[in-house]
Write a structure and sequence with these properties.
The complex is a heterodimer of chains A (about 110) and B (about 190). Chain A is mostly helical and about 110 residues long. Chain A has 7 helices and no strands. Chain B has about 190 residues and is an all-alpha fold. The chains are: A mainly alpha (about 110), B mainly alpha (about 190).
Chain lengths: ~110, ~190
């Protein structure tokens, strides 16, 4: 049974993700530049899931984000948080989240915003 | 705030005022350290400039947050003096970062109007000295983790060191704010940047 759970977590990361821990991670790692409701140094995250990149209202994006043809989903956010510069060269976020489990939890939290 | 916390705040203020000249010297050294980078030019510098401009944005926000706190009428001496001292540190960070960005051929990001920061930080919800200190502590902790988080992204090790030094200043601020708020130290080691 444990093997089945482990397999499911690998095959469907969102099943194993912990939005509560994601909130803690957000408040520890992301809050320096971001908030859910307001644009700060980085854009607001409210409604980020399903939004086309570079379209948070009122935020001055880099040309790389403005011209990006991606929609924020579990898959694209995973790639973004793992290595923003690899996904969109020329973007301005120098921060990444190296651990896959941390990314999954953060994404689970962002999905609820 | 207890008498002990007040005494800590007063001692900290005296300490910071005594070391003001040293901090200025540190900013000058930071600028001098970027000379080789400036000569190097290249896309490497361009990438680092982007990160430095995000850092500059953080410093603009911190300066304005302390300004909002100072203008609120909610801060009492000596806490007000400490807040002004911390704001002064952030102004020094701002000037140093802007100087490095220019030396690397970049354009420093502009400061927004204070009203923009007030809206983003929900300044209208600040009703007490503790509210202001809680906000300041949250921003200082966020900046600490942001600076620590971008260290691996710098192409040039000199700038990675600069980010580490800025993070150390933010930790110094956070620690005192945390103390004045009567909060305990974090449990265990390595609480920052995780």
């Amino acid at each position: 049974m444990f093997a089945c759970v482990a397999f499911a977590a690998q095959a469907f990361p969102s099943l194993a993700a912990d939005a509560g821990r994601g909130k803690q991670l957000y408040e520890s790692r992301c809050i320096g530049c971001h908030s859910i409701e307001a644009n700060r140094v980085g854009p607001a995250h409210q409604g980020v899931f399903g939004r086309k990149a570079g379209l948070a209202p009122g935020y001055d994006y880099s040309p790389a984000l403005k011209s990006a043809q991606i929609v924020w989903s579990e898959k694209t956010l995973e790639r973004w948080l793992a290595d923003p510069e690899k996904l969109l060269p020329g973007q301005k976020m120098g921060y990444s989240v190296p651990e896959a489990a941390d990314r999954a939890d953060l994404i689970a939290y962002l999905r609820k915003q | 705030m207890s008498n002990t916390q007040l005494e800590v705040a007063i001692l900290a203020r005296r300490h910071f005022l005594r070391n003001a000249a040293t901090l200025s010297g540190a900013a000058v050294a930071l600028l001098a350290g970027s000379e080789a980078l400036a000569q190097a030019g290249s896309s490497m510098a361009s990438s680092d400039v982007s990160i430095l401009n995000v850092a500059l944005g953080l410093e603009h926000e911190a300066i304005n947050a302390y300004q909002l706190g100072a203008q609120s009428g909610l801060l009492q001496k000596p806490v007000l003096d400490v807040a002004v001292r911390f704001q002064s540190d952030h102004k020094e960070h701002r000037d140093a970062l802007a100087g490095v960005i220019r030396k690397l051929g970049g354009k420093p990001v502009d400061e927004k109007a204070i009203g923009d920061y007030a809206r983003a930080l929900k300044a209208e919800t600040l009703k007490s000295q503790n509210d202001v200190l809680e906000l300041a502590a949250r921003l200082e902790l966020g900046a600490t983790n942001a600076y620590l988080g971008v260290i691996p992204s710098f192409k040039d090790a000199t700038l990675a060191k600069v980010a580490g030094r800025l993070a150390a200043d933010e930790v110094m601020h956070w620690t005192l704010l945390n103390n004045v708020l009567g909060k305990p130290l974090p449990m265990g080691g390595l609480p920052f940047g995780a």
